[in-house]
Each structure stands twice: as structure tokens, then as C-alpha cells.
Amino acid sequence: MAEEKKRTRRANGESAIYLGKDGRWHARVPMGYKDDGTPYRRHLTRPTRKELVDEVRRLEKQRDEGSARQPGKPWTVAKWLEHWVENIAKPVVSENTYAGYEVAVRVHLVPGIGRHRIDRLEPEHLESLYRRMQSAGSKAGTAHQAHRTARTALGEAVRRGHAAKNAAALAKPPRMEEDENEVEPYSVDEVQSLLLEVNKRRNSSRWMLALALGLRQGETLGLRWSDVDLDNEYLKLRRNRLRPKYEHGCGDAAPCGRKAGYCPTRVQVRRETKNTKSRAGRRAVPLPGPLVVMLRAHGKAQARERAAAGNLWTESEYVFTKPLGGPLSPNTDYHDWKRLLEDAGVRDGRLHDARHTAGTVLMLLGVPDRVIDQIMGWEPGGAARMRARYLHVTDPMLKEAARKIERAIWGAPENLAVDKDQDNEA
After folding, report:
1. Which string of DSSP letters, residue by residue, matches 66-91?
2. Strand duo 283-286 + 25-33: pairing
3. Which residues, including other chains, have CB under 8 Å from residue 123's CB and lie 6 or more apart?
């Protein structure tokens, strides 16, 4: 009898399944230990034994894989996202990446799905949010940014055992319209029109660095004179200019009533520049002769501005500055680009489209892929993907391909003329 009882006892860690007095089946599933060292068990109940056993097996699998929710009060989505963005993401990502995460969390995710428990969030909740965002006027790209942020944040929650699944990884983000991300690089004629207008402007070489060499906005605005070697006709890219972020300096006793960026005594709380995040981004870029001439002229013009400003000049080592010195704001730079397009009579486009233009021109000129990768600052492992994204097949390239096919199949142009004459005589 004792032998039989010993065999029927549950093994250590085995789930208990029993029929309760309420007529339902119950289970107690060992899940580990609480923070204070006491055992932690999950209670499940289902109307039939089969349903309960299936749920017990699923929970045991999550426990064994380390993906089950841990003991303690479950997080709401809002609390987790706010904790994640400030305490987990912020210390390890760049300022710009954090800024994107923070906006997605504060503006879209917390108001839209924040009240759900993190362990009960379903893909349908997120898909409903994306539809509401678009109905309210948000672009598909904005919904995609919220989706990427949620996927990253919830993935961390799953790794830490706060949720059993990543609902955002299962959700389907809205379809991106094909023309929403379609980029048409500027033609050579358009670049020349911009060049004519650029020569009338202050900081003219700033725009030609973008159109001719594909420098990113942050790379150009973060450029310092110590990075430029005009004698040897090259420059070194080592850092990026960051978007400034301000806090009030007026104090609670006498608030100015304005946004922090317009406070008369505002305090900048974000560093001006950061080093490029990849080895490929830290690179030397050759300067065409006309750009060397433009940069020399720009240096002389800056020296004249410094002398005229006197004590009002804000000293810095930046190549491109405000009229009274100091680094250019990316926001001001963006609006200058829009005015340049309008004054030059060139179609509207993103500032980043100039980078697509430069990459396409390099391809059109037959520059080897490895050299293009060096100039554009692409990592070897992802260079092919970036070339596919940035290098565009233009109409002149298609026409040249057609001419090559013509010569290969039908022969030289003079042979075609002879064939046509023979056809006419016939």
C-alpha cells in the first residue's frame, strides 16, 4: 500500500490538476519563486479537464522556455513603455533614436493602448491603433514608427518575463504606399539650377557637399575646420550634429510662459555633436576641385563675418555657422533648403533626397561600388542593401542600355541605315 501511495504522489515541480466543488477543473502550476524566495504557483480553471490540461501544458512550456510572466503585479502597457523608454532605452541608444521612441510612446502608444495589461495585449489592439492613427490624419510612416517602437519595447518585456508574447511582432502594420517612400533623385539639369542659386547664398558650399558627395545633414553641420584639408583636397567625417533640446532657464518663480525652445534664458540639455556610430561613418571623402575653391571662398567669407561681428561673434570651430557664429540648427538648415528649392525653381523634395542624388550620380559616372560605399559611408555588410535603396536607375541610364542592346543585336548604326535603305528600295 505504501508503495502504491509513493508512486501516485506528484513529483516535485509537477502541476496539480483536480476537480473542484464548483464543478470546474482546477490546476496549480509551479512557476518558480518570488523575490522573497517563496514558491510561486499559477492557478488555472477551465470547464473541462481537456481544456485545462492543454492550458497547463502551454504554461509549463512557457515556464521551461523562460517566457512566462513573472510573479508580481502585472505591468500596464503605459507603465512599461514609460519605464522602458526612460530607464532601458535612453541610456543605450543615440539621442535621436531616443527622441523618436519618446514621441511614439508619449503621443501615440500610451494614449492609444496604455490601459491594457501588458500580458493581455493582443495584436488586434495595435492594429486598431494604427487604423485610428491614420483616420486621424497620421501617415502610414508615422504608424510604422509607432509599430517599430512597440515591437522593440515589448520584445524587451518578453525577454524579462513580463509578457509571454510580443503582440507587436504579431501585429500587421499598415501598408506603406509605394509612392510614399519613392525617391526621384534630382537630374543633372536640376543640380545645375541649384548650383546657380547656391552661388548667390551664404554657406553655398554646404549644399554642394550634399548634392555632390551625399553628406548627411548631421555630418555636414558637425564638420569642423580641423576636419578639412584643402591642400590635399579631402575632408574627414567623424561626428554628427544633433538636434538641440532645451529646458526652461527662467525658473518656477517667474515662468516665461513660452515653450522651452523659446525661453529667453533657455538651457541646452543635449550635447551639440556625437561621434559617428559606425566605422564606415568615420571616413575620408575626396573633394572635387570646384568644391575646394568654394570652401576656400567660404573660409574667407566667414573670417569677414567674424571681423564685422566683433564681440557679438560666437566662437566655434564649425565650418558652417550662423551669421554671428555658433553652430547651425538642423531646423534652420532644413528651412534654408526648402527656400533654396523654391528660389531655384526646382521641384520640392526632402533634404535627404540630395544624398540619393549624389549616390546616383556616382553610379552614373561608373565609380566602383567599393568607392561609392566609402564616399557614402556604408558598412560593408549592408552596402549592397543600401546601394539598392539609394542608387536609382535614371532615364539616361536606361537609354544608354537600350543603345548598347541595339549595337549588340542589330549592329553598328551605319548597318542599320543600310538595312533601312534596302527596305525602302524593296
Report:
1. T-SPPSSSPPBHHHHHHHIIIIIITT
2. unpaired
3. 167, 168, 170, 171, 172
C-alpha cell at 405: 542592346
Query: How far is it, in rounded angstroms, from Cα 2 to Cα 304?
Result: 102
pTM of the model: 0.61
Angstrom distance (rounded) from CA 92 to CA 145: 19
The Cα–Cα gap between 239 and 218 comes to 8
State the pairing for strand pair 25-33/39-46: antiparallel
Which pLDDT does position 422 carry in this prediction? Answer: 52
Q: What angle do CA 144, 147, 150 make, to 5 degrees?
A: 155
Give Cβ neighbours of residue 295 (< 8 Å, ≥ 6 apart): 205, 228, 230, 287, 319
d(CA 171, CA 147): 8
> Which residue intervals of 91-234 are DSSP H helices?
95-103, 110-113, 123-135, 140-159, 167-170, 188-198, 204-213, 217-221
The confidence score (pLDDT) of residue 75 equals 86
Residue 45 · residue 52 · CB < 8 Å: yes
DSSP class of residue 176 equals P
Among left, alpha and beta (phi > 0; psi -120 to 50; other), residue 162 is alpha
Mean pLDDT by 10 residues, the chain (426 residues): 42 80 91 74 90 89 69 82 94 85 96 93 96 92 94 92 90 72 75 88 89 86 92 87 79 78 79 69 84 93 94 92 90 92 90 81 75 77 68 61 64 52 52
Q: What values do phi and psi take at 180, rounded to 5?
A: -70, -35
How far apart, in whole angstroms, are the C-alpha atoms of residue 8 and residue 294?
Answer: 89
DSSP designation for 92: T
- Distances from the Cα of 103 to the Cα of 31, 82, 118, 222, 261, angstroms: 37, 11, 20, 24, 17
Q: Are 330 and 243 in contact (CB under 8 A)?
A: yes
Q: What is the pLDDT of residue 35?
A: 62
Q: Cα separation of 231 and 277, whole Å?
A: 28
Q: Which residues does 37 contact at the CB level (< 8 Å), separation at least 6? A: none
Cα–Cα distance, 327 to 238 (Å, whole number):
16
